Amino acid sequence: MNSALDATEGIDIEPPSTDLARRVSSSLGVSTSPTGFHTPSWTKSGSPLRAATGGLAKHLKPFATEDIKILLLENVNVTGQGLLEAQGYQVTHLKSALPEDELIGKIRDVHVIGIRSKTKLTARVLREAKNLIVVGCFCIGTNQVDTQYAAEHGIAVFNSPFSNSRSVAELVIAEIISLARQLGDRSNELHKGTWNKVSNGCWEIRGKTLGIIGYGHIGSQLSVLAEAFGMTVIYYDAVNLMALGTAKQVPTLEALLRAADFVTCHVPELPETNNLISRKEMGDMKDGSYLINASRGSVIDIPALIDAMRSGKLAGAALDVYPAEPGGNGDYFTNELNSWAQDLRSLKNIILTPHIGGSTEEAQSAIGIEVSTALIRYVNEGTTLGAVNMPEVSLRSLTMDEPNHVRVIYIHRNIPGVLRGVNAILGNHNVDKQMTDSRGEVAYLMADISGVNVAVIKDLYQRLEGLSSRIMTRVLY
């Protein structure tokens, strides 16, 4: 990369002594500079990268990149790890989730934590994370994080809602075919040496009706794939959504259940989706139909499913998610985890997979890139685009033509009079850009100020910290 972008050539404040610099970096919550990351607004124009305004893009930079500590759990994809390590951060990565007490011990001094679906960031855990500024969920859901508590304490939460949609959709197609042909049972039998060539109860999926509950990114992709196999697709969603292909939306869940040969669930975990498919709903389904769940474990009443399978009401089922799931790999799917586990495992023509809907190399790599990039933007630039619990705020990148700038981030309670107090502090300086937005009880303000030095930075930080509305103050430069 052109040397004009090197941190050593982009110092934009009067540099204090090294000791003072490190103290300022730590005491002000100052974030670190990217060494290989560029915002989407930059375009290639010859050999150095340029900001959208035409000037050379300038990195926001504190003094000690290595001060930022990151903890990655649950075997986060190496692509994501690599992006974070390239920033110069201290990155620790572990293969599994941690029990709550052990997690509390690990999280106390980290600034960033990356998790997948097994780690539970409860209020008790987050309360101990005194330095934490951001959480990255390397998965679709964020229900494993107390996002409200995080927002109220200035901790942004990012996820990857779309990157594994295709992987989940393809898994469901594979399960539909496998259930229709009883492939799981035939495979298990032959592994045991039993040759059982039968056609009774085995079907083509062409001409059958697929009912999709939840027509979001996964459901709509599944719809297209199913039509390519010759299936008729109907779907039910809480809101009216445009159909892809020849799929048709039905007005009620009951209408979908009565018409579909295969029913598949793709809904979030919400109070209204808890046991969405229970005894009554299974009674509404066609005799000999199939049920698939690759959404959340609470969506299906599994004891009711066991009874429906044993009675012959359902001809097959596939589950990728469960109400309680082990924290790591091993022989843990037992009655000690879920009281019905043994009964579930004993059923015929049921596919049980260990929450692998998004577990493909492509999906995990895409998730790693998406979430790590969001974390880098937030740490380095304060950008909240894509955050699930914060207002979405972003300012254009500073350029090399804008020396002696500082970016102030003030996360505060959304109450009257805050901007008056903040602007009284910022008003003595040249505010080049400012943006603020609120989300519920939390508001997020970002401002770029020119003509600053370390003394000014420290004064701004201390005065903002003294405001009663303050949740968290960050200063980036």
TrEMBL record:
<keyword id="KW-0718">Serine biosynthesis</keyword>
<dbReference type="GO" id="GO:0004617">
    <property type="term" value="F:phosphoglycerate dehydrogenase activity"/>
</dbReference>
<dbReference type="GO" id="GO:0051287">
    <property type="term" value="F:NAD binding"/>
</dbReference>
<dbReference type="InterPro" id="IPR045865">
    <property type="entry name" value="ACT-like_dom_sf"/>
</dbReference>
<dbReference type="InterPro" id="IPR029753">
    <property type="entry name" value="D-isomer_DH_CS"/>
</dbReference>
<dbReference type="InterPro" id="IPR036291">
    <property type="entry name" value="NAD(P)-bd_dom_sf"/>
</dbReference>
<keyword id="KW-0028">Amino-acid biosynthesis</keyword>
<keyword id="KW-0560">Oxidoreductase</keyword>
<feature type="compositionally biased region" description="Polar residues">
    <location>
        <begin position="24"/>
        <end position="45"/>
    </location>
</feature>
<dbReference type="InterPro" id="IPR006140">
    <property type="entry name" value="D-isomer_DH_NAD-bd"/>
</dbReference>
<keyword id="KW-0520">NAD</keyword>
<comment type="function">
    <text>Catalyzes the reversible oxidation of 3-phospho-D-glycerate to 3-phosphonooxypyruvate, the first step of the phosphorylated L-serine biosynthesis pathway. Also catalyzes the reversible oxidation of 2-hydroxyglutarate to 2-oxoglutarate.</text>
</comment>
<keyword id="KW-0597">Phosphoprotein</keyword>
<dbReference type="InterPro" id="IPR029752">
    <property type="entry name" value="D-isomer_DH_CS1"/>
</dbReference>
<dbReference type="InterPro" id="IPR050857">
    <property type="entry name" value="D-2-hydroxyacid_DH"/>
</dbReference>
<dbReference type="Pfam" id="PF02826">
    <property type="entry name" value="2-Hacid_dh_C"/>
</dbReference>
<comment type="pathway">
    <text>Amino-acid biosynthesis; L-serine biosynthesis; L-serine from 3-phospho-D-glycerate: step 1/3.</text>
</comment>
<dbReference type="InterPro" id="IPR006139">
    <property type="entry name" value="D-isomer_2_OHA_DH_cat_dom"/>
</dbReference>
<dbReference type="GO" id="GO:0006564">
    <property type="term" value="P:L-serine biosynthetic process"/>
</dbReference>
<feature type="domain" description="D-isomer specific 2-hydroxyacid dehydrogenase NAD-binding">
    <location>
        <begin position="174"/>
        <end position="357"/>
    </location>
</feature>
<protein>
    <recommendedName>
        <fullName>2-oxoglutarate reductase</fullName>
        <ecNumber>1.1.1.399</ecNumber>
        <ecNumber>1.1.1.95</ecNumber>
    </recommendedName>
</protein>
<feature type="region of interest" description="Disordered">
    <location>
        <begin position="1"/>
        <end position="45"/>
    </location>
</feature>
<dbReference type="Pfam" id="PF00389">
    <property type="entry name" value="2-Hacid_dh"/>
</dbReference>
<comment type="similarity">
    <text>Belongs to the D-isomer specific 2-hydroxyacid dehydrogenase family.</text>
</comment>
<feature type="domain" description="D-isomer specific 2-hydroxyacid dehydrogenase catalytic">
    <location>
        <begin position="70"/>
        <end position="389"/>
    </location>
</feature>
<dbReference type="GO" id="GO:0061759">
    <property type="term" value="F:2-oxoglutarate reductase activity"/>
</dbReference>
